[in-house]
Structures are given as structure tokens and as C-alpha cells.
Amino acid sequence: MFGKVKEYKLLSVMIGLVMVVSLFAGAAMAGEENDIEFKQITRLAGENRYATAVEIAEYAYDGQEVETVILARGDELYDALAGSVLAEAIGAPILLTDSEELREETSQAIEDFGATKAIILGGEAAVSTAAKDALTSDDLNLEVERIYGKNRYETAAKIAERVAEELGEQFPEEAFIVSGNAPPDALTIGSNAAENGMPILLVQEDEVPEATQKIIDGLGINELTIIGGNAVVTDGVQNELDAERIYGANRFKTSAEVAEAYYSAPDNIPDSVIFAGGANENLVDAMAGGYFGAQLGAPILYTSSLDDDIKDYLATVVFPDTTAYILGGYAAVSQEAEEEIEAIFEDPLDPIVDPIDPPDPEIDEIDVNNDVEDITVPFGTSEADAIAILVEEITISDTDEETYVVSLDWSIADYDGDSAGDYDATGTFELPEGVAQTDPETDLEVEATVTVEEEEPIEPDPLEVVSVEAITDTVTVPYGT
Predict the structure, then answer these.
(1) Would you say the C-alpha torsion 287, 289, 292, 294 has a positive or negative sign?
(2) Cis ω on the peptide bond leading into residue 462 (within 30° of 0)?
(3) Is the peptide bond before 183 cis (omega within 30 degrees of 0)?
(4) Count of beta carbons in the 10 Å neighbourhood of residue 343
(5) SS3 294
(6) What pLDDT is recorded for position 253?
(7) Which pairing describes strands 363-367 and 393-398: parallel, antiparallel, or unpaired?
(8) What pLDDT is recorded for position 318?
(9) Given this model, what pLDDT does residue 20 score?
(10) pLDDT at position 365
(11) What is the DSSP letter of 280?
């Protein structure tokens, strides 16, 4: 669901517009050597932001039923800024509604999805009791959960808590920090945050709200990244949180910097890139599409016309099979911007061919002419002392004729230093890094014989006269003795 590690895949791009339209389907682009089938550019959009959110959801889930939908206010972004992370964590689309009533297109989408539960982001000021009652009515009959706090900072913290609860041990203990007064920064990181299960937490320009600090401590979050410059989150806040920072000179350049940081060559070329309108009134499309970007592994790029930094980024990641998605209508992403995008896609990079790494050389031979000789030890020699006499290293070579010195680990079978005779010693070694085994395998060992000498007989020491004592007693014997 998140944390996908992407090997090389050719890029896709999401851009928000007014209906699902496929451009360039079947069009061919001539290369220098081959005719390459041009990629497809798809617009996802409806008559308004509410219908656009439905189009994105239907495309993302492609006819599947979903158990839960997430409902957010469509004309105010703040309570839903962190919603994309929760949406991806629980596998739910984000739909939008008016504050005072449930939109008809939203209600129909909920019914079409076969949902049985709705999670409302924000309090009654964001989504009213009347809208909630429509969800629990006989028509929809949904179980409803509301996630909210007394302000946007608490609501974001509550959403983070819910994400951590959902992910359990997979919760990454990392989070993004954005300004609670600058929605574009939160929305441009939405897909990456959702893909990796990383909460989006809000701060004031020059202060860390109590709710935000409390949830950082409570969830054990130990790695923070601020999205946006010091005009929206001051250096003082950055220092207080000990956070990294990613930003550009404006929201368009910040979106390019985020894409460069998390979705770039050579190791993380994305499958998709999202383009959404960068004007304030169009940011809701990015909010509705953040979880979609997570599904595709796609960065979100803002555009009215293409910023130079965005063009530079695309020049490094657009390949012949790249797909483009556009979110929202021409009022969000202009015809001019679309044509600029098309021009980039008409001149893609050459396809990447993963280099085939040559196989590791195999072991070729073991050079036993390295003084691996049989040894003879005196009777009574311990095994450790016998091993200490054996050669410690040998030389091996590989099929590339490279040589390596390897250490031997000796053992002596059934060794008894108090029993004369021959004993088999085996010295094993490991292959050096970068040298492969053969097939069939080569025995990684050498042998030697350890001979324990016979015990020498012990001869008694010769006796020596050490003193002479005179005997003075008188002995009487018979006559003639």
C-alpha cells in the first residue's frame, strides 16, 4: 500500500482537467531508429471540483467496490490537508462535499462504490450535521466516523494518530511538516507522504502548536521534513523541530524540488507525475488526487504554464512509454500548459536499458603450493598448539586470473596428542567478496596430516654414592669361619 521501492519504470504523468480524455492514442512518434508508439495522456475531470473528485476516484479504483470513503469539504482545504495519507492507508478514495449538504454527485459515487462507511475530515463547521445525516439516511445507510479537533492543527494530529493506528508496526516514525496557512506545500507532498505512510502535520509560521508537538512525541516521530520556505515556516521552527527542509522560490518550484527529491533518476524514476492547477482555487484537485498519486508512485507538479524548474525536471524523467494524467479542467491547467507538456512528451529521453552486470568470476583453482605441508608434533602436544604450527593462509585464483590470499580455519579430526599416530587436518576458507562458487561447487578446503610422535621411553637415572658411613659394631663368628 505504501513504501513501494521502484526500480526503473517509465514515467507517467497526471494532470487535472475536465473529463476523461485520451490524447495521442495510437499516435506514432518517429525515432532515429524505430517508430515508437506514443504514450497516452489522460484527463480526469468533471463539471466542477466535486465531479472531478468522483472522476479521480472512479479511475483510481476502476470499478472496484470500496468499503470506506473519505469525505472532505470541497471549498476549504485545511481540515483535509493530511487526508491523502489516511486515504492510502485504509484504501479509500477522497470525495468532496459542500459544507451544508451532501452533493448529489458525491452521494451517487458513494452508492456506486458500494461503501458501507464514511470518514469525515473536520468538525461540523467543515462538514455539517445535515451532510452527516445524509450519509446515515436510509438511502446510503453508512456508518460514519468523524476525525476532527478544535482547529486544523488538532485535526491533522488526529489524522496522524489514526494513520499510526491503521499501520501499526509499519508506521514509519517520520512525518512532513507544512504551514497550516499554506495549502500548496501540503498538497504537493501528498502523494509521497501517502505512499510511505508519513503523516502531514501543520505548524504556524513561527510556532509549533501544542497539538503538533504532542503528536510528534506521542507517536515517537524522530525524522521531520519541512515542505516550503522560511516565508511560511520560519527557521526558528525548523531549528526547534530539528527538521530538514525542501522548498523552492514559489509553489511551482517547490513542487519541482519535491519531485526531484523523491522521484528522480537514477534510482527512483517514477511511474507517474501528477500535474494540477497551482492557483489557490484549483488546489482542491491536488487534494483529491494525492492518494491516486500514491497508487501510481507519482509526484504532483503544479502548473498554470510550465515553470522552468518543472521543465528541467521532466527533461530527466520522461521516456517513450511515459503516461500523462491531467487532473482538472482548462481553468485549472490551461491549454497552453497542456501543449507545453505535449511538447516535452514528443521529445522523450532514449529508453533506459538496464546494464547487465557481468557475473562474478568463479573460483578457478586453489594453489596448494603455499607451504600447506604435513607436520609432526611431539607426543603430548595439544590440538591448539598443533593447529598453530599449520600454515595460516593460502592463495586462490579466479577465472579472471586474479589471485587472493585467504585465511584458513583448521580442525583436526579425532585428535589426541597423547596417542601417537597420523591425524587428518582440514583447513577451510571463505570466498572473497566478488568471487562466485562454481557449479558443481568447489570444496573450499585444503588438507594436511598431523603426526604425533611416539612417546620416548623413560630411563631411570643412574645411582650415585652420596655418602659412606663406617660400621663399628663387633661381629663374632665360629673358629674356622
Answers:
(1) negative
(2) no
(3) no
(4) 11
(5) helix
(6) 94
(7) antiparallel
(8) 86
(9) 42
(10) 60
(11) G
CA torsion 179-184-186-190 (nearest 10°) is: 180
Return left, alpha or beta for 242; rule: phi > 0 is left, psi -120 to 50 is alpha, else beta. Answer: left
The DSSP bridge pattern shows strands 445-452 and 375-377 to be parallel
Give the relative orientation of helices 283-296 and 49-61 as an angle to the nearest 10 degrees: 0
Angstrom distance (rounded) from CA 109 to CA 54: 7
**Helices 283-296 and 83-90: crossing angle, nearest 10°?**
30
Q: Which of 111, 93, 16 is nearest to 57 (CA)?
A: 93
What is the distance between the alpha carbons of residues 3 and 449, in angstroms, rounded to a whole number? 56
Give the position of cell 516550503: 228
**How much is the pLDDT for 320?**
80
Residues 423/396, Cβ–Cβ less than 8 Å: no
Q: Hey, how many other C-beta atoms are within 10 angstroms of the C-beta on 457? A: 5
Give the pLDDT of residue 280.
87
The per-residue pLDDT for 74 is: 92
Whole-angstrom distance, CA of residue 13 vs CA of residue 27: 17
What the block records as the C-alpha cell of 395 is 592463495
First to last CA, the chain: 125
**Whole-angstrom Cα Rg for the chain:** 39
> Is this model's pTM higher than 0.85 or not?
no
- Biggest CA–CA distance in the chain, Å, is 159
DSSP 140-178: T--EEEEE--SSHHHHHHHHHHHHHHHHGGG--SEEEEE
pLDDT score, position 13: 38
Q: Identify the segments of the chain with pLDDT beneath 70.
A: 1-39, 351-358, 363-371, 463, 465, 468-475, 481
CA 424 – CA 406 distance, rounded (Å) = 21
* 8 Å CB contact between 293 and 12: no
User: 149, exposed or middle or buried, with CB in 10 Å at 0-12, 13-18, 19+?
Assistant: middle
For 384, the enclosing helix (H) or strand (E) is: helix 383-389
Question: pLDDT value at position 472?
Answer: 63
Q: Which residue, chain included where needed, has cell 512518434?
A: 29
Residue-wise DSSP of 304-347:
SS--HHHHHHHHHH--TT-EEEEES-TTTS-HHHHHHHHHHHTS
Q: In which residue are the cell numbers 478544535 written? A: 150
